Amino acid sequence: MYPGPYSGTLQRPFKIDPDGHRLVYPSVLAFVPTPSYDPADFPEAVGRHDALLAKHAGGLLFALRRHAGDTEGTPMAFSMGARVGVISSRVHRESVRIGWRDGLAHACSPFPALSRRLVLAPRLIEMYVLIVTPDALTLRTVALPGSDSLDLRECAPAFEPGEMLAVEPTWPRAVALGSMIVRWARTPRSLLQVHVHPRPRMPATPDAEMDRLLDVYRPELLRDRGDLPPEDCVALISSTRLCGDHASVSSRRHPAVPLYLETYGDLRPALDRPATLGWLPVIVHTDMHVGLRWLDTGAGGGSPPAPLPALVLPWKRAQLVSGG
Fold this sequence. Notes:
- This protein is an alpha+beta fold.
- It folds into two domains: about 30-200, no CATH class; about 205-320, no CATH class.
- The chain has helices spanning about 45-70, 100-105, 110-120, 205-225, 255-265, 270, 315-320; strands at about 85-90, 95-100, 125-135, 135-145, 160-170, 175, 180-185, 190-200, 235-240, 245-250, 280-285, 290-295, 310.
- The strands form three sheets. Strands 2-1-3-4-5 form a five-stranded mixed beta sheet, with helices on both faces. Strands 10-9-11-12-13 form a five-stranded mixed beta sheet. It has a three-stranded antiparallel beta sheet with strand order 6-7-8, with no helix packed on it.
- The longest helix is centred in the N-terminal third of the chain and has 30 residues, at about 45-70.
- The radius of gyration is 21 Å and the shape is globular.
- The relative contact order is 0.13.
């Protein structure tokens, strides 16, 4: 058994403790970058999970209102992202619960595709739902129907099903062989699927960490950009132990953009230069540092502008100077 987020868990039946609250998130860079299994390999399981979500969509929202109300007084929609719905179906028993996203990101560490996704915050007014049956686990999103109120007590009576994000077999196996990790599992439509990956190594420098985060969230940023021209956009990747990860793209005219340009004042000169065709500026923010990277959008631009090396965050700089 190898150290890290997998240690001591891979060879045991998967058990969920939705009430676990770890207060910190695992680093997305500590997980094996394995792709999710193909949902087409789990046709019966996916069908059952669809039926479970449809059956319990109302109960899931009721459980969220109760969970948020017990901890925060007023159950507000913007608190959904910190929570995960868990629908579990065992023999003759089904349950619906709400758990904390940070705790479930740790609990799902034997399933890297699920855990990596749980570290990343969902979109606004969306929530992740983890569905567990004896043969598979799936992670999906659910969304609130359109509402003018952010109070969960005043919105529609049930969630709307969203996107399927990942599917994993319930019994993965793994072994470390030198510098490699071998993972294997059986799926209903294949005898065996084997994935071989290098053992995860944490980046040695802040700049290397930012480069890795950009590689991890490149697909998410390109999808979030949609049809917005890259020269009119700015992207943000935030990765902190306390809040998990966030990756999004906004128009430079969005009201929030001047706020974080003011916060990260050292980035303003680079962002105030004329936009380079085909390159999207990405502000990368970690626990200690902030930097600027450029993402190729495939629009046929020229050479990318120079990245801005990692800078110590202003409030962390004050702490270091004061010795705090």
